[in-house]
Specification:
about 230 residues, alpha/beta
């Protein structure tokens, strides 16, 4: 069980509050989707979850330990895959090399990850030669290969065609069987397909924290209704 806690957390930039204050205790099971308009604070929230920086106020922790001190428990996947100038196999192996995992175990894990991503046939190819969808599957395989407790994803399908998006979503559902998944997305249909839980942010405030079933069957009002109707 992965328990995420935000205790009176806020972040300011240029003298303006961009997120918070947020009080949250979330048991991360399955897939949690972060929704909200541009500039709502989703990416800032994800960065805090991963411990990329400390909030200006408050505390972020996982299972009672600070987000910064537990970063190795998690993986982070960006909107555009980071592609190193080496083979697909070497790209996926990179975090295991960084963690000094023994070569024999590394080979086993990388092989599993490549099969998982349906990239075994491209293992020796330069990663730069992959299509956009293949690069994102490679990036997810690289995030998963360390067996993280949680994988955080920031708009990973934003630039993909529908077929590539569905392939990535299939991987994410499988990942959620062993790791907690938190994904920021602008795609409400994607959230309907994937989400077990939903958080909605508007103007840096956490407006919704509820199950996907409750969120997608409820009639919303106020700023959440404005967001869902495309007015903000």
């Amino acid at each position: 069980m992965n328990t995420l806690t935000f205790d009176n957390v806020s972040v300011s930039r240029g003298g303006q509050v961009v997120l918070g204050p947020i009080d949250l205790r979330l048991q991360l099971n399955g897939i949690t989707c972060l929704l909200g308009p541009n500039g709502a604070g989703k990416s800032v929230f994800l960065n805090l979850c991963h411990g990329m920086f400390s909030p200006d106020n408050g505390v972020v922790d996982w299972n009672g330990k600070s987000a910064i001190s537990t970063r190795r428990d998690r993986s982070f996947m960006f909107q555009s895959a980071a592609v190193m100038r080496r083979s697909v196999q070497a790209n996926v192996a990179f975090p295991l090399v960084a963690q000094k995992i023994a070569k024999a175990e590394r080979l086993v894990r990388v092989g599993e990850a490549l099969r998982f991503a349906r990239l075994s046939d491209q293992a020796k190819q330069p990663a730069a030669s992959l299509s956009g969808g293949e690069k994102q599957r490679m990036a997810l395989a690289r995030a998963w290969v360390t067996r993280p407790k949680v994988i955080l994803l920031d708009e990973p399908a934003a630039n993909l065609d529908p077929g590539s998006t569905r392939a990535l979503e299939t991987m994410l559902r499988d990942v959620a069987n062993s790791s907690g998944v938190m994904i920021a997305t602008h795609d409400l249909l994607q959230a309907r397909r994937l989400a077990d839980h939903v958080l909605v942010f508007v103007d840096g405030r956490l407006e919704i924290n509820q199950s996907a079933d409750a969120f997608f069957t409820k009639t919303h009002t106020g700023v959440v209704a404005d967001y869902l109707d495309g007015r903000i």
